[in-house]
C-alpha cells in the first residue's frame, strides 16, 4: 500500500468549495449571533457555530496535502472580499437549487418560471464572479492563491469572537 502524498486535483477543489462556504457562513453566524435575543435560537446559533468551527478544524490539516498549497501570513483581505464571497456563495447555491428544482417539476408553467430564475441566477453569479476577479478577491486561475485565501479565511473565522 502506497502512502498518499498529495490530494488529487478534484478533491482539492471540493475542499476549497467546502472551506470557503463554511468559513464565510461562520463569520456571518458569529456576527449575527450577538443580535439574537431568543434563547432557543441563540442556542441553535451556538450549535451551528461550534459545528462549523469543528468542520473547519478537521478540514484545515488537509491543506498542506493539496497540490500547490503554500501557507502565507499576508495581510487580511478587506471586507469587500468577505461580502462579495457571501454573494458568490448565495448565487452559486441559487443556480444549484434551481437546476435541481427543474428536474422535479411536472407543471410546465412552474418549470418556465424556474428556468427564468435559473438564467437570472447564472447571470447574478457571473456578475459577482467578475467583480471579485476584477478586484483580486477570487484568484480562480491560481490554485495556490485560492487555497492560501481559503486557509487564511477559515483560520480567521475560527479565531473570531
TrEMBL record:
Protein name: Spore coat protein
GO BP, sorted A to Z: sporulation resulting in formation of a cellular spore
Entry keyword Phosphoprotein: no
Keywords: Capsid protein, Sporulation, Virion
Pfam families cross-referenced by the UniProt entry: Coat_F
Homology family: Belongs to the CotF family.
Xref: InterPro entries: Ferritin-like (IPR012347), Spore_coat_CotF-like (IPR012851)
Principal place of residence: other
Gene of this entry: cotF
TM ranges: none
Subcellular location: Spore coat
Organism: Bacillus amyloliquefaciens (strain ATCC 23350 / DSM 7 / BCRC 11601 / CCUG 28519 / NBRC 15535 / NRRL B-14393 / F)
Amino acid at each position: 500500500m502506497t502512502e498518499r502524498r498529495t490530494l488529487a486535483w478534484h478533491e482539492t477543489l471540493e475542499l476549497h468549495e467546502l472551506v470557503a462556504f463554511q468559513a464565510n457562513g461562520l463569520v456571518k453566524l458569529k456576527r449575527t449571533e450577538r443580535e439574537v435575543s431568543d434563547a432557543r435560537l441563540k442556542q441553535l446559533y451556538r450549535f451551528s457555530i461550534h459545528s462549523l468551527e469543528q468542520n473547519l478544524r478537521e478540514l484545515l490539516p488537509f491543506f498542506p496535502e493539496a497540490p500547490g498549497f503554500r501557507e502565507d501570513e499576508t495581510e487580511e483581505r478587506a471586507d469587500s472580499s468577505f461580502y462579495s464571497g457571501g454573494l458568490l456563495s448565495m448565487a452559486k447555491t441559487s443556480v444549484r437549487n434551481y437546476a435541481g428544482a427543474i428536474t422535479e417539476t411536472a407543471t410546465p408553467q412552474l418549470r418556465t418560471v424556474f428556468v427564468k430564475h435559473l438564467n437570472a441566477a447564472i447571470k447574478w453569479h457571473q456578475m459577482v464572479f467578475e467583480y471579485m476577479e476584477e478586484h483580486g478577491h477570487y484568484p480562480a486561475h491560481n490554485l495556490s492563491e485560492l487555497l492560501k485565501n481559503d486557509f487564511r479565511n477559515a483560520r480567521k473565522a475560527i479565531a473570531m469572537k
